[in-house]
């Protein structure tokens, strides 16, 4: 996932988020009753906040831990302990505290969100995605017409290949705003992933009726035409329009190269695909290049491209081609 390539950015985001979480917690949140123990826990907690805002994180942590001894099952205290650990760079300890906080209060979205960010910095992608999903799903439940949240949730489901769930989110967006081009694009893409080509084509066309210069829809529709053996000339028109919008887009260039290959223009295909792979290292482009080299009679280069493709992503069809060539 792209966010894993931006570790420094996410780390900054984490610290920023931590700095503003849980800043004002009422005394009633600390302790089920107005007891002396609860009042003392609240005092330790507030002292911790004061140290925290002064930048004395280690001192703050000590105060939060004192509060936790008196109120061990309080999720707000656990959240602040986790935040302090994170600021001190003690990520494993922070994760454990946030996990405990979410167990104590599953509806605390701050905890889930911060836990997701910590998992992201630790490159624990599956765990991070799980926490993001919890946050987005709960926000969507609270505010069904929040289109932006549904976009995030739909795209998350799409990345996870939970296509039916993704489709529901994008359809919900379109019920509120039928002209949301990005929702139409992702809905069409989900249909295509499910091999529902007619629905995908119709939905991409709807997107282009609203925004004729939507590059991703132009390219995707053109690529479907190429893959399904429809009108190759029309496919190239669509893909070239996408390239007019974004000339250095490796995915678009790959589509053009693949269209050339399907039209029997192998040399032209080679030029475009070699250019594409320099801009966008992707298993599909390497697979396409392998097919082109094989067509040109260079089996060694074909094998090399398919091996690179498999290094990026295990794909049975690519593996089968490589095995046939190596027999």
CATH architecture of the domain at 1-125: Alpha Horseshoe
Question: Can you give the helix content as a percent range?
Answer: over 70%
User: What is the chain-wise order of helices and strands?
Assistant: HHHHHHHHHHHHHHHHHH
Major β-sheet profile: none
CA-to-CA gap between the ends?
A: 35 Å
CATH homologous superfamily assignment of the domain at 1-125 = Tetratricopeptide repeat domain
> Structural class, judged by helices and strands?
mainly alpha
Structure description:
This protein has 327 residues and is mostly helical. It has a domain at 1-125: Tetratricopeptide repeat domain (Serine Threonine Protein Phosphatase 5, Tetratricopeptide repeat, Alpha Horseshoe). The protein contains 18 helices and no strands. α4 (75-87) packs antiparallel against α5 (91-104), α8 (147-159) packs antiparallel against α9 (163-176) and α12 runs parallel beside α14 (250-262). The two termini are 35 Å apart.
